[in-house]
Write a structure and sequence with these properties.
This is Prealbumin-like fold domain-containing protein. The chain has about 180 residues and is mainly β. The protein has one helix and 13 strands, in the order αβββββββββββββ. The longest helix has 20 residues, at about 1-20.
C-alpha cells in the first residue's frame, strides 16, 4: 500500500513539472517594471554600489539563469524588534509601506541579477527583502536574505562577498502565478 502512495506522489510531481514547463512565458525574458515617482529605484550601475548577491532563477528542468528585476528594500530591527528601513541618506527609519514611503532606499536586480547597495556599510546585521516581483511568475527566494558586516568584511547568508565576480547566489524557484 505504501508503494502505491509513493508512485502516486511521483506521478503528481511529474505532471506538475510538465505543466509548468509547457506554460508560455517560461523563458527568462523580463519586462520593465513601471513605478510611480515615489517608487524610484536606485540605479545599480552606480560605481559606488556594493554588490551583495546574485539572484538566480531555477527552472523546473533544473536550468539556472540570472534573474533581473524585482524591487528590494533593506531593513534591520531596532531594540523593540520593529523594522527600520534604510533610507537614501543611509539612516534607518520606521516606515509604513517601504514601496510608497518617501526616501526609502530601493534597489533593483540588474541584467545579471546582481543586487547591491550604495554608501558605506557600518558593522552590524541587516536584511534584504523583495517587495515586488520581476515578472509574471512568482519567485520563491530565501526570506529574508541576511547580510552581516564586520570590520569591512561582508557576508550574505553566511557566504563571504568577494567582489562582483564571485558573489553569493540566492536561488529562486520559478513557479507560475495563478490569477483568480
Amino acid at each position: 500500500m505504501r508503494g502505491k502512495h509513493i508512485i502516486i506522489k511521483i506521478l503528481i510531481a511529474g505532471a506538475a513539472i510538465l505543466a509548468v514547463m509547457g506554460l508560455q512565458g517560461g523563458g527568462v525574458k523580463t519586462k520593465p517594471i513601471s513605478l510611480t515617482a515615489q517608487q524610484t529605484v536606485v540605479a545599480q550601475q552606480s560605481q559606488k554600489s556594493v554588490p551583495l548577491f546574485q539572484q538566480m532563477a531555477v527552472f523546473p528542468d533544473g536550468c539556472q539563469r540570472p534573474l533581473a528585476g524585482g524591487i528590494f528594500a533593506f531593513y534591520r530591527f531596532d531594540i523593540k524588534g520593529r523594522k527600520q528601513y534604510r533610507m537614501k541618506n543611509g539612516d534607518w527609519q520606521l516606515v509604513g509601506n517601504p514601496l510608497t514611503a518617501n526616501g526609502v532606499y530601493l534597489a533593483q536586480a540588474d541584467q545579471l541579477g546582481v543586487v547591491g547597495i550604495t554608501r558605506k556599510l557600518n558593522d552590524g546585521r541587516f536584511y534584504v527583502e523583495r517587495l515586488k516581483l520581476p515578472e509574471r511568475y512568482a519567485v520563491r527566494l530565501p526570506s529574508p536574505v541576511k547580510v552581516s558586516v564586520k570590520q569591512g568584511a561582508l557576508t550574505v547568508n553566511g557566504q563571504p562577498v568577494r567582489g562582483r565576480d564571485s558573489l553569493p547566489r540566492i536561488y529562486a524557484l520559478r513557479v507560475p502565478v495563478t490569477r483568480q
